[in-house]
Specification:
With about 290 residues, this protein is an alpha/beta fold. About 35% of the residues lie in helices and about 20% in strands. It has 2 domains: about 140 residues, Rossmann fold; about 140 residues, LpxI C-terminal catalytic domain (Cytidine Deaminase, domain 2, 3-Layer(aba) Sandwich). Strands 6-13-11-9-7-8 form a 6-stranded mixed beta sheet, with helices on both faces. It has a 5-stranded parallel beta sheet with strand order 3-2-1-4-5, sandwiched between helices. The protein has a two-stranded parallel sheet with strand order 10-12. The radius of gyration is 20 Å and the shape is globular. The chain starts with a helix and ends in a 7-residue tail after the last strand.
Length: about 290
């Protein structure tokens, strides 16, 4: 399919390209789109996407860096809308294995890597749009994956935990412009950890190790996750899954708080079961910051 034809395709029509990373969320989005009558094509990232679940859809396997292959196949499939979702660890520029289609873009891609994740992803979004594709928010296709306001599971946050949640959100709003991370751990108004390049799971493992070594002198705590101020919410919203609950339990936390309507929840039924078993709360908090 030619670029011009792809550009001219009306939004919401034609096949949907799902750039599929790890975890269950890509399949929740693909399934929701298919139930609404969309033809879905997965572009599964090697080393990340689940091969067994990918096999249930029309699909193509791609590597990070195979920009030319993705553009060619997406056009041949008649795709106009693209959604990118699922876990991927950010590679270094030198870890990419560019195909011929990416080589002319390498100077631009190098500039994308000169910043944090939001800077990189904004560059990727711009590149897709310049090639005639419309980047679609996953929550537009599958609103059920968004964190609701209130609790998942049986437990509620205490008043002290709510104060820690507010403290964590204030910190994330302050650090967001520096493109640092989307998560923080707070206990009794103490900042125990701030997410950086390691990701949420490794941050929780760090808190667990600090507790085991006696370096943390306060009990409990809350994992707080929220999108960065001004973030393009079509891509890379904060996410929790069952493994996040397990990590929070090992870290000795009291619960988790996410921005309601601004975070993804993978496998909410499993999360509720695990959280109740671990005596953790999972709480969706409304964004009350001015101007957001």
């Amino acid at each position: 399919m030619s670029t011009a034809a792809s550009i001219g395709a009306p939004a919401g029509e034609g096949a949907l390209a799902v750039i599929c990373g790890g975890g269950s969320l890509p399949f929740a989005v693909a399934g929701a789109a298919a139930r609404r009558g969309r033809r879905v094509v997965l572009f599964a990232l090697r080393g990340w996407a689940d091969p067994q679940r990918v096999a249930g859809y029309r699909h193509h396997w791609i590597r990070l860096g195979q920009v030319g292959r993705f553009l060619r196949l997406a056009r041949e499939e008649g795709c106009h809308d693209v959604v990118a979702i699922g876990s991927v660890v950010r590679p270094t520029l030198w870890q990419l294995r560019p195909d011929l289609g990416m080589i002319p873009l390498l100077p631009r891609v190098a500039r994308m890597f000169q910043g944090g994740d939001a800077h990189l992803l904004a560059g990727v979004a711009g590149l897709l749009e310049e090639q005639g594709f419309r980047l679609v928010a996953a929550q537009e296709l599958a609103p059920d994956i968004l964190m609701p306001e209130g609790t998942i599971g049986m437990r509620q946050p205490s008043e002290a935990a709510r104060r820690d949640i507010a403290h964590g959100l204030a910190l994330l709003r302050a650090t967001g412009p520096f493109d640092v991370g989307q998560a923080v751990v707070v206990a009794e108004h103490n900042i125990l950890a701030v997410e950086a390049a390691e990701g949420t799971d490794q941050m929780l493992a760090r808190v667990a190790e600090l507790r085991r070594s006696g370096r943390i002198g306060v009990a409990g705590g809350v994992l707080v996750k929220a999108p960065k101020p001004g973030q393009d919410r079509r891509i890379d919203l904060p996410t929790i899954g069952p493994q996040t609950i397990e990590g929070a339990a090992r870290a000795g936390l009291d619960g988790l708080a996410l921005m309601a309507g601004g975070s993804f929840v993978a496998e909410p039924e499993s999360i509720a079961t695990l959280a109740d078993r671990a005596k953790l709360f999972v709480f969706g908090v409304r964004d009350e910051a001015p101007g957001r």
